[in-house]
Automatic annotation (TrEMBL):
Keyword flag Hydrolase: yes
Record keywords: Hydrolase
Keyword Magnesium included in the entry's annotation: no
Protein name (Swiss-Prot/TrEMBL): Hydrolase
Organism the protein comes from: Paenibacillus mucilaginosus K02
Role of this protein: Counteracts the endogenous Pycsar antiviral defense system. Phosphodiesterase that enables metal-dependent hydrolysis of host cyclic nucleotide Pycsar defense signals such as cCMP and cUMP.
Residues of the Metallo-beta-lactamase domain: 22-227
Taxonomic path: Bacteria, Bacillati, Bacillota, Bacilli, Bacillales
């Protein structure tokens, strides 16, 4: 866990979707409020609560839960978080992903057809577990809808940036006080190096790359990526270079010169 300025990048070890990885939800807090951004996979509540306690923020302090988009590794433990938090908790999502998160529509990327190539590569036990999660995904009620440019009144202000592409209702967030961009899956990070969106799980690559331009107006000191973690060295300069990527590029490609 990396924490500073009332913001912590939580670290959740995960296994699934083809291997072992680390997911990085974000926790932001001050004396009046505490905001959790994304929740990890189903069954991750104990890991999530332990990471929050390490930051000194128990679930009883949660004011808001922001779900950046519909993917299972982001909303998986949302129902458990909601049950652990006060009744006054506000749950936020973008309207375009709301029906998927609430269970009205099946999650786009975890349908049987979409998951077949991944499931076929897993050991039997892991395959059964992931298949069960995909066939019975969690559903969470959304209290408030996010709008592009909206300023949420928490922790000195959290700006909503609609960054479609990874999903249609994907959002990134900018914490004004710490000058931190919470990219969610709009970007990935590899050993501190910022990369573009991952092509194979991005629904609209052209839109995803265009969304990167919407991040440039912000004064960014560091970027938290849900996959890969923290980018703090020349973060804004790295982002600027990524806006030069062509629509056919992805996370493993470099900006055009």
């Amino acid at each position: 866990m990396i924490a500073a300025d009332g913001i912590a990048m939580l670290e959740l070890e995960a296994e699934g979707f083809g291997g072992r990885t680390t997911l990085y939800p974000t926790l932001i807090w001050d004396a009046e409020s505490a905001v959790l951004i994304d929740t990890g996979m189903p069954g991750f509540l104990p890991k999530l609560l332990a990471a929050m306690q390490e930051a000194g923020v128990p679930p009883e302090r949660l004011t808001a839960l922001i779900l950046t988009h519909q993917d299972l590794d982001h909303i998986g433990s949302a129902p458990d978080v909601i049950r652990s938090a006060p009744d006054t908790l506000q749950v936020y999502a973008h309207p375009l992903d709301k029906p998927y998160i609430e269970g009205e529509l099946p999650l786009i990327k975890t349908t049987p057809a979409a998951m077949a190539p991944i499931l076929s590569q897993l050991p039997e036990e892991a395959r059964k577990q992931l298949q069960a999660q995909c066939e019975n995904p969690p559903a969470a009620p959304i209290d408030s809808l996010l709008e592009d440019g909206q300023l949420l009144p928490y922790c000195g202000g959290i700006r909503v940036i609609h960054t479609p592409g990874h999903t249609e209702g994907h959002v990134s967030l900018y914490h004004e006080k710490s000058r931190t961009l919470i990219a969610a899956d709009a970007l990935v990070c590899a050993d501190g190096t910022l990369r573009g969106p991952i092509a194979y799980n991005t629904l609209d690559m052209e839109a995803a790359l265009q969304s990167l331009h919407k991040l440039l107006p912000y004064e960014i000191d560091r970027i938290i990526c849900y996959h890969g973690g923290l980018c703090s060295e020349d973060a804004r300069s790295q982002l600027l270079e990524l806006t030069k990527l062509s629509p056919s590029a992805g996370a493993d490609q470099q900006p055009a010169k």
